[in-house]
Amino acid sequence: MLLYSESPSHLKILLLLGQDADSLSLIKVIQSTELPCTIQECRDFHKLDQLINNSPQTFDALLIDLSESHLKYMQQLAYIINHLPIVVLAPLGCEHWIKHAIQLKCEHFLIKDLAGGFLSLLPMLLLRAINGSREQIARTQAELDMMEHRLSLSQIVEGSPVASFVIDCNHMVTHWNSACELLTGKKAFEVIGTNNQWQAFYSEARPVLADLMLDDALEKNVDLLYKGKVQSTNSICNVFEAEDFFTQYGEQGRWIYFTATPIRDACGKIVGAMETLQDVSLRHEVEEALQASKAFLAQIVDGSSVATFVIDRNHTVTHWNRACEALTGLAAKEVIGTQQQWRAFYPSERPVMADLIMNGAMADDVDQFYHGKFRPSHLIDGVFEAEDFFAHFGAEGKWVFFTAAPLRDMDGKVVGAIETLQDMNERRLAEEALKASEARYRDLSITDGMTGLFNSRHFYESIDKELERARRYGRPLSLLLMDIDNFKKVNDQYGHLEGDKVLQSLAMVIRGCLREMDSAYRYGGEEFIVILPETRNADAINVAERLRQRFADQVHRPSAGGIINCTVSIGVSQFVIGDDAKSLVKRADDGTYQAKHQGKNCVVLVEIKPV
Q: What is the separation of C-alpha 259 from the centre of its chain, rounded to a whole number of angstroms?
């Protein structure tokens, strides 16, 4: 509780006097002086405690007009008023009462002389008592604050697990905690009270960082003593940090991170400095191992003959080896440190396979960009491989096989991705040449070399498939078998070369009369077969008649002169349940035979007669 007024311009005085005492003249005299004050009376000692402690307004002083009735309460009064400054007025001839006031540790009292001279001294005495009390309270508070500050600082320093020491304005060590003892090997009792803090760090006397902080000499001496090692972490608080290697710590020395912070008084003046030290050797070992690992990775990537690049968690390119430069035509310096790896592969920005891997893509995500071109790796989970054609690689473009795999940290978290690329152009060209060769060989194996129609071997492969389809789905199927009339006579009269031209002419007519689904075959010699899927008797006869007529209209002019007019006899059969290739061909062949006997150059349908 405040026992004095917060306003120094106006004082509040509590007047304690006897029941029969006359206060008017006393109050009048006090108020007539230049002392600005308000006086409140109290005549009941028992209400004094309540008045002092429960009043919404505090009092600056207690003025006691001492009477004999007060003497027996003086001891209790000491507990009630506590630190409130007191001025005691004792009646003339009752000076011995003053000893009771001394019990209150009261140093301010006056004897009320009959002439009233004490009244002229009273205002001055009241001010002295009030100012003295305030000064004492302020001094006591400052001492308590200092003690609390020192205690707090000691607790902070001593209780900290971080090695710490404190020096005062004279560079004398005031604190050196247990963590500092453990780190430096110097005991607190060896250092506290001295300015030998340098002995824990250096072989000869020189300022430590806290000393420079205290002398405000960092700017002048930092390059001399800590060149390239000190930096400010907070320009407002002037906290400085540094990192250095100390050979005397441990068997192989240790890296120490240390900071220096100024300690200021209430006015902002630097009165000391605190330095903290942390062993960061393990961090340096990890960083060195990381650098070694990065260098090792760089050697693996850069030394590989396989085109390879690496991106980090931000999709920034970190490696782009020479093989990648050669394949893509994009120099490493143009792409490393950027997120423009797409430039090597695509005309506009889009994710490459490594980007998709970095984003945790699943097969559906990859399919959006590499539909029908990729597959998951059979060896490693989360790895995808693809093959695509890149038109701007080289003069004519290249086929490239590429894979992308995640790079993970020790916790399994994806921190990057690596992509490899292999030029598959030669293999692709070889495969295409092989496919073309196989296709050519297959065509040759199923094609009649003279007419260009399918051969008889391929006929039996095809008819079986068409018969199976007709049986399964109940669809119609017809067959034409034709034989050139009097072909032997053409060969005998004009020679086999002219005969071959006749065969080729018939093949051309057949091709001109067929639909896309139909197929034609040279069955043997001058015999030809046509398969007509989805075709019934009537339609098959129409096709046969059209074919017969067109061939009959053909005029063949042999080189020896003259004109050759050839015709063809055609037998027609339609698939019925129970038919196989042999029976279906047999009926068509019978139709051809009948057409020959009917005068040739005609079409005959042979049907199975109902039983």
A: 32
Handedness of CA 172, 176, 181, 182 (dihedral sign): negative
What's the CA gap between 549 and 482, in Å, rounded? 13
Q: Give the Cβ contact number of residue 537 at 10 Å.
A: 14
Write out the DSSP string of 4-50. Answer: S-S-TTSEEEEEEE-TT---HHHHHHHHHSS--EEEEEE--GGGHHH
Q: Provide the pLDDT confidence category of residue 151 given band limits of 50, 70 and 90.
A: low
Catalytic residues: 526
Residue 61: its H or E element: strand 61-65
Q: Are 127 and 35 in contact (CB under 8 A)?
A: yes
CB 563, CB 495: distance < 8 Å: no
Distance, in Å, from the CA atom of 11 to the CA atom of 32, rounded to the nearest integer, reads 14
SS3 category, 113:
coil
Token pair in block for residue 530: 């046509």
Among positive and negative, which fits the CA dihedral 340, 341, 342, 346?
A: positive
Inter-residue contact 135 to 152 (CB < 8 Å): no
Q: How far is CA 169 from CA 142, 176, 197, 274, 471, in A?
A: 19, 16, 14, 11, 111
What is the model's pLDDT at position 425?
A: 81
Structure tokens that stand for 505 in this block: 């002419």
Q: 161-165, 258-262, 312-316, 375-379: which has the highest mean pLDDT?
A: 312-316
Q: CA 326 to CA 307: how far, in whole Å?
A: 8
Residue 609 DSSP code: P
- Residues 28, 34, 40, 45: is their CA dihedral positive or negative? negative
Nearest-angstrom CA–CA distance, 101 and 297: 91
How many C-beta neighbours within 10 Å does residue 295 have? Answer: 10
Q: Identify which of 500, 509, 508 has the alpha carbon closest to the alpha carbon of residue 559.
A: 500
What are the structure tokens assigned to 20, written together?
Answer: 């029969």
Task: Select from 534, 536, 530, 537 the least CA-distant residue to 509.
Answer: 530
Q: Which amino acid is at 427?
A: R
* 558 backbone φψ class: left, alpha, beta (φ>0; ψ -120 to 50): beta
- Chain centroid to CA 485: how far? 84
From the list 477, 585, 595, 586, the residue with the least C-alpha distance to 537 is 477
Q: Which pLDDT does position 5 carry in this prediction?
A: 43
CA–CA separation, 581 vs 590, rounded Å?
14
Q: Are 404 and 384 in contact (CB under 8 A)?
A: yes
The owner of tokens 């990192």 is 243
The pLDDT of residue 7: 43
Pairwise CA distance, residues 318 & 94, whole Å: 100
Model pTM score = 0.41
Question: Do residues 51 and 42 touch, judged by C-beta distance below 8 A?
Answer: yes
Write out the DSSP string of 319-376: EE-HHHHHHH---HHHHTTSS-GGGGT-SS----HHHHHHTT--HHHHHHHSTTTEEE
